[in-house]
Amino acid sequence: MEKKVIDTKNGQQRRSKGKTVGKEIEWNGVSLETIQQVLAQIEMLLQEGEAIEEAHGAHIQKVHPAFKSSGKNLLHYLAFRKHDNRTLQSQLARLGLSSLGRAEGHVETTLLAVKNQLNLLLGHLTHKTPSLSTPNPFTASLQPNISALLGEPAPGREGRIMITFSTDLADDYKSVKALMKSGMNCARINCAHDDSTVWQKMVDNIKLAEKELGQSCKILFDLMGPKLRTGPMKEGPKVVAIHPKINEVGEILSVAKVWLGPKGVPAPEPVDASLRVSKKWAKNAQIGDTISFRDTRKRKRIFTVSQKVDGGLLVVSSKSAYVTVGTQLHLSGKKEDPFTYTLGELPAMVIPLQLKTGQEVVLHRKRILGEPARYDIDGNQVAPAHISCTLPEVFTRVKVGESIWFDDGEIEGVIEEVDKDFLRVKITSADEVGSKLRPDKGINLPDSDLHLHKLTAKDREDLASIIPFADIINLSFVSHPEMVEELQQVLHENLATHVAIMLKIETKAAFDNLPHLLLTLMRQHPAGIMIARGDLAVELGWQRLAEVQEEILWIAEAAHLPVVWATQVLEKLTKKGRPSRAEITDAAMAQRADCVMLNKGPYILKSIAMLDDIMKRMQEHQYKKTSLLRMLHVSAMNGV
């Protein structure tokens, strides 16, 4: 719509896009004075960016040449976001100019562009020749850093997919090849589990699959870091429980599937239990044959052979059973050789601690095997549940009244007593029927300053094994720059500065120190970060996770550092075969990161296919925070 402004030469009104209110010049409802104030704010932001760059010049000097411009941009972004810019956003939007809401990747260039537009507008309104700034050419870009760290993307998909390897993949080449063929771009090997022998087998399987498929797959080793975990439990009986799935009224929904296979031969599909048998014995069975046995309760049970695969048998059962060492399996009911097989060594059951709100649990400094609470014949507790922890040094750094969380926040407690040998904890939140606490579960102390700033002895030992095979080393529970410097030094000493470093952001301290961590990280190229949302939610509170993960994405984009989105992505689909609605939305949001991590599970191939489809769809609509404005099919308004 045409509006009017004062012609300053003759005092008469003329047609233009501006207008006057009395003698005051406006543009789209924004006064000339306000436009000048907005310009002054932009000038201030530019000056503060230059000031912070000068103040941290020593940091920038240490940054890798590939990250020089990126480091400066990160500092300019921090100066920019030090202010509440909401009013400025609104005013720029009313003027039809950039709202600065997508400035992360090129802050100074964006501010200079807005400054020039404001000067042009002022020149138009006041009939003065505007003074324009020439921005420095901005060459830094995120894309080369993504490729350098995570490799090239799969055809048709810009984001990468990372898969956490489980122990069984060390002896299951077929599954490793299937993962890569389905779209895995990066394999994550967790050094908190297994050992160098198992890791080597995993690497060998990945390398062989790369060769056969003609694809590349980055290998990331996740250092355990100074992670506080629950210690081991006393072994329970060596029994394997087998159960069909039933509904609320006891009707069978699906039979139990059991794999009877030789050593090293994995089940052909997800099963409820696996038992080791000899190939020679299994060879005598035919599809449809029955295998009878007496379980630990002396009840007669029957397996029916449904498949013969790779020297093993896939069998089914419609009844619950418990088998132990020495259980005899009789093929077709025959009790003589070669139709009878006696089960050998089985893994011991782990009986977890059952913790309820109001109960106590004792955390030992020494490696004392954990046990559930003990009760007398009348049901009265005579001894509380107890378990050890992996980092005894924390016992001198916690205080009575501080919070303690177990198992990614599933169980909450408060420290009631601190002794040099133990902590006494009162459970303040758990499931109504009790929450189970098992060995090797995380412990978080969000209120405590634990001073865990160094690589652990285990980390250093693991590094000696993994450096020759690693493309990326993921530094877990990093909290201070000294820890990053220590890892960089280890890589330098081993002539392995080509190995990338990724920081796992999972603690309150890491989030609070994020700018310093990133500037230190950027001394080596390539590099990136992982948002480990499980521990991060526990440390910062569930309510803050949504905004914190956004802030990390923005800051990493300003530093041109690739981001991995981790923790429970499509978890229900991977474990159960069907997704929840919420996790589909979460997977769609994850596309704004540069790589999405999935955990291994029975339906992992299904999850990779689903994630691949979601990422391909969403990349047509969104890049980071920017909407790409692809045509909407509903906009055609068919039939109207």
Q: Your description of this structure?
A:
By secondary structure, the chain is α/β, with parallel strands linked by helices. 32% of the residues lie in helices and 24% in strands. It is built from 18 helices and 36 strands. It has an eight-stranded parallel β-barrel, surrounded by seven helices. The two termini are 28 Å apart. 36% of the residues are buried. Residues 1-16 have low confidence and may be disordered.
Nutshell version of this structure?
This protein is of the alpha/beta class and 640 residues long.
Which features does this protein show?
640 residues, globular, single chain, seven-stranded mixed beta sheet
What structural class results from the helix and strand content?
alpha/beta
**Count of alpha and pi helical runs:** 18
Instruction: Outline the low-pLDDT stretches.
Output: 1-16
Radius of gyration: 31 Å
Total strand count, please?
Answer: 36
Cα-to-Cα separation, first versus last residue: 28 Å
Q: Taking all residues together, what is the mean pLDDT?
A: 91
Question: Which sheet architecture does the biggest sheet show?
Answer: 8 strands, parallel, barrel
How do the strands of the widest beta sheet line up side by side?
A: 6-7-8-30-31-32-33-34
The geometry reads as: globular
Helicity, in percent? 25-40%
- The fraction of residues assigned to DSSP E strands is 15-25%
